[in-house]
Design brief:
Distance between the termini: 15 Å
Strand content: 35-45%
Pfam family, one: DUF2218
CATH architecture: 2-Layer Sandwich
Number of helices: 2
Structural class: alpha+beta
CATH topology: TATA-Binding Protein
Protein name: 2,4-dihydroxyhept-2-ene-1,7-dioic acid aldolase
Organism: Methylobacterium frigidaeris
CATH superfamily: Alpha-D-phosphohexomutase, C-terminal domain
Number of domains: 1
Low-confidence stretches: none
InterPro entries: UCP028291
Order of helices and strands: EHEEEEH
Number of strands: 5
Strand order of the largest sheet: 1-5-4-3-2
Length: 92
């Protein structure tokens, strides 16, 4: 298993976490509340945690070759929800 993490500074972390989880809850196995979420997608598993200052995103994939695609899917969706601010993603 390969893992990747990004900590994205935003005062709206809880809102974005819940929007993303609700968005995918009709298609994928999803569990969430205001501060944490787990979403099982075909590319892998996303776990999100919201604090007052940041959204932490942990991704786990079985195939390391799929990690760039998984990053792109997460970023694209979160940027759509956060259209009023610019989010910065640095994956480690």
């Amino acid at each position: 298993m390969t893992q990747s993490r990004a900590v994205v500074g935003t005062a709206h972390a809880s809102r974005y976490l819940q929007q993303l989880a609700k968005h995918w809850s009709h298609k994928f196995d999803t569990e969430f509340d205001a501060t944490k979420a787990r979403i099982a997608l075909p590319l892998g598993e996303a776990r999100l945690a919201a604090s007052d200052e940041a959204l932490t995103i942990d991704l786990t994939v079985a195939d390391p070759a799929t990690l760039p695609d998984f990053h792109a899917v997460i970023v694209r969706h979160l940027e759509r929800f956060a259209f009023r601010e610019t989010l910065h993603f640095e994956w480690a």
